Amino acid sequence: MSSTPTPARKPVTLPRLLEMPARGEKIAMLTAYDASFAALADAAGVEVILVGDSLGMVCQGLSTTTPVSLEAMRYHTECVARGLSRAQGTAWLVGDLPFGSYQASREQALHSATVLMQAGAQMVKLEGGGWTTETVRFLVERGIPVCAHLGLTPQTVHALGGYRVQGRGEAAAAQLAAEARALQDAGASLMVLEMVPAALAATLTAQLTRCPTIGIGSGRGTAGQVLVMHDMLGAHLGRVPKFVRNFMADAGGVREAFQAYVNAVKSGAFPVDEAHAW
Ligand code: KIV
Predict the structure, then answer these.
(1) CA 21 – ligand 1 centroid, Å
(2) Is 5 a residue whose pLDDT tops 80?
(3) Which of 37, 107, 168, 225 is deepest in the core (most CB within 10 A)?
(4) CB 152, CB 201: distance < 8 Å
(5) Which of 125, 128, 138 is nearest to 48 (CA)?
(6) Please, what sign has the CA dihedral across residues 76, 78, 80, 82?
């Protein structure tokens, strides 16, 4: 008896990601920092893998992301890209531009983004609104897809006064919304919203029709979700944010934990708004 071969999955492309909200499909994004975990996340159906500068905290033992170097980001991006390629993975790969690698000038940002793209990233992520808008436009015009990141921006934790909710209150919400629209207009094609009140994140998600939002600690109304891999595996150092769910707790192993995360994001079972009561 001949068995029907499993159809090969198609690579995740930017047009496909942009269409997912209209199709009612949630985007599952997860961080990864090495070849093996990236391949497992990909096999579980994670559509977007982020080589986050959170690697400074979870891999390097730092207490913030600010000391992470461009060379460290390049190295881990290359490891993840290699793992995806060996496993014939299909996930879209995003590399985080670290603190100090894009603030000085648009040319500096272009140089740093080029380093990550040449290491295998398909998109770069940078934090903040305001002045970053022109940097995003500059990169996008030069063929580099960009993921924006608003709300809690960990690279500027010292300026923000801690890891706290952003966009609370009318004025702060209006400013965040204006920055989000400007970033979309500049060409950002994904936007991480970190620790933003759930109602504001849902409103922005409805308004940003050309830039799907990916929430972390921002409620269930975003177009997708992202978590730091070590946090959702219960393998974190120190305190874990209350919006994180430990998917390893009821899983038989890492594969099952990744699968449970993807299923929960897709079905809307993760997150629950009660965990984001800000
Ligand atoms: O660095 C990172 O892992 C991130 C995610 C938390 C979005 O920026």
Answers:
(1) 21
(2) no
(3) 225
(4) no
(5) 125
(6) negative
- The CA 185 to ligand 1 mean position distance, Å, reads 23
* Cα distance from N-terminal residue to C-terminal residue, the chain: 57
> Which residues, 6 or more positions from 205, have their beta carbon under 8 angstroms from its beta carbon?
21, 212, 213, 221, 222, 223
Q: Which of 222, 58, 194, 35 is nearest to 128 (CA)?
A: 194
Instruction: Tell me, using a 6 A CB cutoff, whether residue 147 lines ligand 1.
Output: no
Split at pLDDT 50, 70, 90, the class of 264 is: very high
pTM: 0.96
From residue 65, alpha-carbon distances to 77, 101, 144, 167 in Å are: 16, 13, 23, 22
CB of 31 shorter than 6 A to ligand 1: yes
Residues 6+ apart with CB under 8 A from 112: 70, 97, 98, 101, 102, 124
Report, as residue numbers or ranges, the catalytic residues. 194
* Residue 8 confidence (pLDDT): 77
Quick check: CB of 80 below 6 Å from ligand 1? Answer: no
8-63, pLDDT tens digit by residue? Answer: 789 999 999 999 999 999 999 999 999 999 999 999 999 999 999 999 999 999 99
Report the 10 Å Cβ neighbour count for 130. 11
For the segment 79-94, what is each residue's pLDDT rounded down to a tens digit? 999 999 999 999 999 9
Torsion of CA 264, 95, 55, 65, to 10 degrees: -110
Which atom of ligand 1 is the closest one to the Cα of 214?
A: 7
Q: Which amino acid is at 67?
A: P
Alpha helices in 126-224 (DSSP H): 132-141, 157-160, 170-186, 198-207
